[in-house]
Each structure stands twice: as structure tokens, then as C-alpha cells.
Design goal:
Layout: H1 9-16, H2 20-31, H3 36-43, H4 52-88, H5 107-121, E1 125-126, E2 132-134, H6 135-138, E3 163-165, H7 170-179, E4 184-193, E5 204-214, H8 219-234, E6 240-247, E7 250-259, E8 276-285, H9 287-292, E9 301-308, H10 309-317, H11 330-333
Parallel strand pairs: 1-4
Antiparallel strand pairs: 2-3, 4-5, 5-9, 6-7, 7-8, 8-9
Helix pairs in contact: 1-4, 2-4, 5-10
The structure holds phenylalanine.
């Protein structure tokens, strides 16, 4: 079967194509929607029935030949174009690079690491617990039974009657004591949640809990540990005082104040003119807590303390609005 001789022109056209763009136009001319090889399919209906199969084979062969030649030429031209480009372009390796903007650790993370570093260097081990907690660990085992007025101090997010978001890191004390026999010496940093939101409160914040249990520790050991900690974090010269306080899970209990780092003790807005800032709560572990975890309260004793990381970070850097920590404002974060 004979096809128009013109159809064979593609061979010579492909051979003489000089660029990949020019080559592509040849593709369009023959195999595009209205290309002359594509249009042959429409001829099929005019071919006598006994010749159709042969006609089909001729079209396919033509197409295959076209494509093979095309691909070969395409590779040739592409290589040629890449080589020309490489020859023409040169890279100036002496140009300075774009400056890389490095992120920094969030101020809360920095202080968190610093607190953990100080205590681990004093022999405390890191402990963790769940943020979704059982009422038993958050309250009951800490000597805060249902209906106890101390529950009102902590605006709890309840999930069910028995399941809640932990309001402090103290449940980690209970979990650790239930799991291990004394002696125990841990710190437990983490997120805590209270239903409260204003300039000095956010519904989520961070605490670090400390717990030491053995057979002989005293309030003097507690005092020594915390004074050492505050001096390492804020400097040796900061005065520290222990003020009697109340927590259901410690007896006796105290709150620790340090000299105001903003005014140096003269009295200012931050320390409300007193020259002192409260930074943590602590006390000797209540015998009822030891009993709740199955420890012999005649044999074992110890101390616990808890502090807010946000508050300490604010004091350390002189930040006066808690909400800045969570705004993700680059201008603010850049300063640390
Ligand atoms: N859990 C107490 C609070 O959140 C802090 C604390 C911990 C007090 C351990 C004494 C001992 O306020």
C-alpha cells in the first residue's frame, strides 16, 4: 500500500532540526491532534474492508519509525544544549552566601534546661508523668480528698469525674513512689493546666517538681537544696527566706521568697513594694502521702518542692506579661 511521498519528509526534517524547540514543532506537525500522521486514522473509513488491516499496520510502522527517530534526535539536542549552557555559564564561588537565619531556644525552654541542669548536677534524676491524670494521683493520694477546700485553689479542667488535666506536677511524686522503693531523688518538669486566664495566668503553664525520700533528711536539707538552687540560677548574692505556708501534701509547708531581682530589694511594682518575690512552694512530705503509696511513714521521710517555670523566666529576664511567651512574636523571641 502506498502513502503520499510527502509523509516521508519527517525523516529529513528531524535530521536537520537544530533545537529541541524546533524538534517539538515537527512532533506537532506529524503527531499533534491535526498532525498528518494522526489524520491518517480518519482515512480508515475510506479504505476497502479487505485492505484495512494492512493500512493499520502501515500507520503503526510509520508512527514507530517517527518516534524512534524523534527520541534519538531529542537526546542528541538536549545534550548539546546542556553542554552549551555549561560552557557559557560560570559560577562565582567567591560570592557571599545568603545569611542563614538561625532560630534560638524559646526563653521558657532555656530556663527549663537550666533548672534541670542545676538539679541533675545535684544528683536528682528526671521523672515524667502523664498530662491527662487520674483524680487519685492529682488529688486523692496527695491528701486532698473530695470536698477538700484545697480543691478550690486549683481550677481544674475535668474530663470525667475521675479523669482530669493535671493541675500541678505533684502527681509525678505519687507515681514515682508507687513504682519505686526509697531512696528517691527526682525532679519532674512538665505542662500543667488550670482554668484561668489573665495577665499573670494562662490555662497551660509549666512546673518543675522535686522530691527526695530517704530515712534521715530534714527541713535543713530542703533549705540547703533550694538556697543552692536559687543562688545558682539568680546569683550568690540574692537573699532567700522561707515563710510558713500550707499545702495538704506537706507538713510543715513553706513558701520561698527571694530578694526582688528587678529593684534589688528597694521595693518596686513587680514586688509590690515589699522587696521580696515568691518563687516556690515546698515542705516535708506529709505522712499521709507516704502511706497512700504504701511507704512506712515511721521509717521514711523526705521533702518536696514545686515551682512555675513561667514565673521564674519572667523574673530572670524582667518580662512583665506572661502572655508574651505564647504569642510567637519573632521580635520578642529574638531577644533571647
Ligand atoms: N504543687 C504545688 C502547687 O502547684 C507546689 C508544691 C509542690 C508545694 C511540692 C509543695 C511541695 O502549688
Amino acid at each position: 500500500m502506498e502513502l503520499s511521498k510527502e509523509l516521508e519528509n519527517y525523516k529529513q526534517e528531524i535530521d536537520s532540526a537544530a533545537t529541541t524547540e524546533g524538534l517539538y514543532l515537527i512532533w506537532v506537525k506529524y503527531l499533534g491532534k491535526k498532525g498528518s500522521i494522526s489524520l491518517l486514522n480518519k482515512e480508515m473509513k475510506n479504505i476497502p474492508e479487505d485492505k484495512r488491516a494492512e493500512f493499520g499496520r502501515v500507520i503503526v510502522a510509520l508512527r514507530e519509525d517517527f518516534e524512534a527517530r524523534y527520541r534519538k534526535k531529542e537526546i542528541e539536542l538536549k545534550n548539546k544544549e546542556i553542554n552549551e549552557k555549561l560552557e557559557k555559564e560560570s559560577i562565582d564561588i567567591t560570592l557571599p552566601p545568603f545569611p542563614i537565619k538561625r532560630g534560638t531556644l524559646h526563653p521558657l525552654t532555656q530556663v527549663y534546661y537550666e533548672i534541670v541542669d542545676i538539679f541533675t548536677s545535684m544528683g536528682y534524676e528526671l521523672a515524667t508523668g502523664p498530662e491527662i491524670e487520674l483524680d487519685f494521683f492529682n488529688f486523692e493520694a496527695l491528701n486532698i480528698p473530695k470536698e477538700h477546700p484545697a480543691r478550690d485553689m486549683q481550677d481544674t479542667f475535668y474530663i470525667t469525674d475521675e479523669v482530669l488535666l493535671r493541675t500541678h506536677t505533684s502527681p509525678v511524686q505519687v507515681r514515682t513512689m508507687k513504682k519505686y522503693a526509697p531512696p528517691i531523688k527526682i525532679i519532674a518538669p512538665g505542662k500543667v493546666f488550670r482554668c484561668d486566664s489573665d495577665i499573670t495566668h494562662t490555662p497551660m503553664f509549666h512546673q518543675v517538681e522535686g522530691l527526695l525520700i530517704d530515712e534521715y533528711s530534714s527541713f535543713a536539707d530542703l533549705k540547703g537544696a533550694l538556697v543552692t538552687f536559687i543562688h545558682r540560677l539568680f546569683g550568690e548574692k540574692i537573699p532567700v527566706k522561707f515563710r510558713p505556708s500550707f499545702f495538704p501534701f506537706t507538713e510543715p509547708s513553706a513558701e520561698v521568697d527571694m530578694g526582688c531581682v528587678i529593684c534589688g530589694g528597694e521595693g518596686c511594682r513587680v514586688c509590690k513594694g515589699t522587696g521580696w518575690l515568691e518563687i516556690l512552694g515546698c515542705g516535708m512530705v506529709h505522712p499521709k502521702v507516704l502511706e497512700a503509696v504504701g511507704y512506712d511513714s515511721d521509717k521514711y521521710r523526705g521533702f518536696a518542692f514545686g515551682m512555675g517555670i513561667e514565673r521564674i523566666t519572667m523574673l530572670k529576664f524582667g518580662i512583665d506579661d506572661l502572655r508574651l511567651f505564647y504569642d510567637n512574636n519573632i521580635g520578642f523571641l529574638k531577644q533571647f
